[in-house]
Amino acid sequence: MQQPRVRAPGPVAVGHGRCHHAPDMRLPHFPLHTVLFPHLPLPLHIFEERYRAMASDLMADGSPYGGRLVVSMITDGPEVGGDAATQAVGTICEIHSAERFPDGRWLLLVVGVARARLGAVDRSGPYATVEAEEIGEVVGADAAAMVAPVQSALDTYLATVKRFVVRATSVGQEPQEPRDVTATLDEVLKPIHLPDDPVAASYAVAGVLQIELSRKQRLLELADASLRLRAELELLRRESRLLEDGAMPPIPTTDLGYPPN
Question: Using CA atoms, how far apart are residues 244 and 20, in angstroms rounded to an integer?
Fold first, then answer.
């Protein structure tokens, strides 16, 4: 199967003003207990009948959706087997690769391309669709100057995460086992070099941070990259202090991973 092309996000506006919004569009809606950021990948295992139908329509020749759907964070209701309410701001994503299994399930890899303000949801069809108004990106004041200190704070944060996990998993273990854990973490938590583009850098950090979904959603909704990077700098420093002091993170240590570069 030919893989659909991933469209890059649109031009970025510099300054404090808002970009002109793209016209509203109606796209398939995929509520999840996650926050997807532009520029970042997300694997989707499609097994419910309604989402199998959605995947088939997205991959069909001449699809009106152009391989795009909307992912937004659930605020109320189930992820599987029912209808869910979600945040009013989500992320438009495009299918990067797709595999259909003989039993009808799909494995999709989608990539976030733009934030969107969501409108009316239509559940009259085989799957829900939602009105989506693309939100233009704004760099904001001094955003470029924020990348270097955020990079430094990110390096410290990842190093602190490694130390925390090693300490947490080494209690009562043989001396060799902590070294094994450290070697494994070195493979998983590799150094991340942030892109020079402040918008892309801000979303990369947002994807790495292991924090509550509500905090991730607030990062997604911030008006510009400068505000997002400043908030992330504080979060990185805060989380590093908490982990260094032995405070438990808000998620299981088994989930301390991040999307690949």
Answer: 44
Provide the whole-model pTM: 0.81
Which residues, at least 6 apart from 70, have a Cβ–Cβ distance to it below 8 Å?
A: 27, 28, 29, 30, 90, 91, 92, 93, 116, 118, 130, 132
CA distance 80 to 179: 40
Over the stretch 55-108, which tens digit does the pLDDT of each residue have? 999 999 999 999 999 999 999 998 888 889 999 999 999 999 999 999 999 999
As a whole number of angstroms, the distance between CA 223 and CA 50 comes to 34
Nearest to 207 by CA among 253, 129, 128, 154: 154
Beta-bridge partner residues of 29: 70
The label of the residue with tokens 């990062």 reads: 219
Spatial neighbors of 146 by CB under 8 A, at least 6 apart, are 198, 226, 229, 230, 233
The DSSP letter of residue 173 is: -
Full set of structural domains in the chain with CATH: 25-135 (2.30.130.40), 143-255 (no CATH)
